[in-house]
Amino acid sequence: MTNNRLNIGIFTCHIDNDYATEVCKGAEYAAKELDCNLIVFPGMFLNASFYDPANQLYDYQYNSIFYYAHPECLDALIISVGAISSLLSEKDMNSFLSHFDGIPILTLEEKLPGYPCIRTDNSKGMRDAIEHLIKEHKRKHICFVAGKEDNTDSNLRLKIYREVLSENGLGVEDRMIIHGDFAEYCQEETAQLLDANPDADAIVFANDHMAIGGYAELKARGIRIGETMSVIGFDDSPSSVNMDPPLTTVNINSCELGFRAVYAAVRLAQTGNMKSEALDSRLINRVSCCCHLCTESDLMKDGRHLLDLDIPDIIDILDGRLFGEIADSFYASKVMSAYNRILIDIVSVIKSDIDTEYPQNKIIDELKCILESDLTDFYSVQKTAYMFRELASIFSSCKLSAAKSLQFNRLNTTITNTISLFISNQLYNTIYENKMMGWSSIYITRDTLTYGEDLGKTYTSILHKLQGLNYEGAYIYTYDDPVRITDTGSWIVPKSVFLQAFFNPNNCQVLFGESRRVPSIEIFDNEYTYYDKRFTSVIVPIFTNEDQHGVFICNTDVAHFSSIYSTSLQLGAALKYMSLLREQNITQEQLRMSLNEIHEKNELLNHLSTSDELTGIYNRRGFMERVEYYINIPSNCGMKAILLFADMDSLKVVNDKFGHKDGDFALKNIANILSQSFGPHDVIGRIGGDEFVCFAFIDDSDYVTEVQRKIKDFSAELNATCGKPYFIEMSVGVTEFVCDGEQTIEDLLSQADTALYSNKRYKRMSILK
């Protein structure tokens, strides 16, 4: 229990998803009626292979928050099985559910053994939709755009499509079916379907979002939707009524599902029992299937015209037609009651025999009250606009006097303008609010960069920004160290977490030290939380790529869910930056404490990387870097220099006859001879097995001759005193040049090498003494 109220948890899919949002709307409404708390755990698909790897690479992170559901913090748990696990086997799903033993569980969409379930019978609505095309509109060539091939819902809808066509004597060929991905970007799939079926007269989409892409392709081809082509969607998403023409679709009662689920979960928590329920899906006829807007002839009763009936009967008939799609919902009576006040005023004036004016101000005021109320959360402003469009069609088809027709048209114009102005203002406010929320989220990262190492100021600034994002409370929990989450999303929640900062109506605080530590099972209810009334909470992970830094919990309503993900991602960036700063500070401290040691090691590493291990002189890399620097530095331009190329005579013979130890002895002595023959500032290196190179600036025309004499003398002295049965000698080649910044080492080496091979003509026939 939290604040002595029941805590009802709900596992759902991504809360940016229309279906998940609608379910949460209904759940929140029921939670308000029952005065219980609602805790939303918005994960993703439990099967990570479903993700789009390019755009949703780390979405599996969201599934980690499921494991914070614990009997200590939840009285009952609703799991939207169809939304989060439609790709899992029953065995894998039962394994997942076993993590939550001790919590009474209710499933949505799919019945699993041992768990009560509330679901919608999608088959009825889909069957009605396809039969409507066949029987009402006489469609003969009906194509189908299914969802992903491994999706349970898609396969069910496709199965019903095949069955209904077969039952009505219409064949189904593979070319009449194509698979999309449930997103609105299926214009290409629709194009392929139309190319394969040039005589198609109807297309059924497995969800409304794919119908958006279908509309785009049909319009691009000049095909008139609702005239030459019938189109039907599925889900009754908020976008369906906004489409042009409004989309005929199937209402799957997602909002009602969430509403009933919370009532059932409370019953389950209190009694331990509840019966499974199945709701019907319902076909919603709009214009896209080729149905027309409603007219009086559609509403005649027993051959009597609509306006010949009594006002209560007229209102009943209008309610059935205009609000039939929501008739079974929990909010139907509230919606119809509100709009009936307007309908009664309109009908009263129309039926009046005297020249009565509409109470226009009263009607418009009542309409504005409805539009500004929470009824629009369930019956949208767009549906209201479509409802009045149908109402206008009905009364325009009635036999009204010219005066009454003019009066009604004026009223209808005012109503339309009022709705249009409200939508325009609503759009502006939404854009402005999103802009402010966007900037507030971005400022979280900006202020983290600004305050950096001052954690107090950083978290204080973050709390200030969060308070501007329609959250009634917010809690930032972190781990000791970032955690790597596998792409299964399954992991063990740490026993405790750190509450870094929080705010609620009672307090706003940044915490330090051990006072931050909170047991994980108490993150929703601890000494820092404050709830004077029921709440809706959402928990999301704070992560960057594979690293999860903690969790973010906010108290807000469903209407403001849209800012949660951007906030958590900004928090992830902020915590990542703070983590990097901590690591940087540690590193800098270590650098300060051991700067001399590191410097010495760097010097040693540099020496090792540029020195020949055997002889101690430069290796190829060291020689090249040093000489390139000398010949290209501007201050050396115009100076004379030499490059001497030397290689030991008959190293292979020494190695083969006397062993590699003697070979190494010979090479070391070659290096010593060259070092003795050149000056201390000259550059000497071993660039190959038996190859050596020397570089020196010269200001004496006899320098080369003198160097060659020294090499000869030192070699003779070595061979006279070393006691080896072979001669240690070398062939040399020299090239002279003037530094001008244009030479390359490779060219100079090539010239010296050529000279060396000329010198090899004078070497001994045998090195053996």
Oligomeric state of shown chains: single chain
Segments where pLDDT lies below 50 for 5+ residues? Answer: 49-55
Q: Report Rg.
A: 41 Å
Domains (count): 4
Could you tell me the number of beta strands? 22
CATH topology (fold) name of the largest domain: Rossmann fold
Which CATH class of the largest domain applies here?
A: Alpha Beta
Helix content: 40-55%
> What name goes with the CATH superfamily of the largest domain?
Response regulator
- By CATH, the architecture of the largest domain is named 3-Layer(aba) Sandwich
- Count, helices: 21
Main beta sheet:
12 strands, mixed
Report the average pLDDT across residues.
Answer: 89
Spatial separation of the terminal alpha carbons: 101 Å
Note the beta-strand portion: 15-25%
Shape: elongated
**Which structural class matches the secondary elements?**
alpha/beta
Organism: Coprococcus eutactus
Protein name: GGDEF domain-containing protein
GO molecular function, one term: transcription cis-regulatory region binding
Domain GGDEF: 639-769
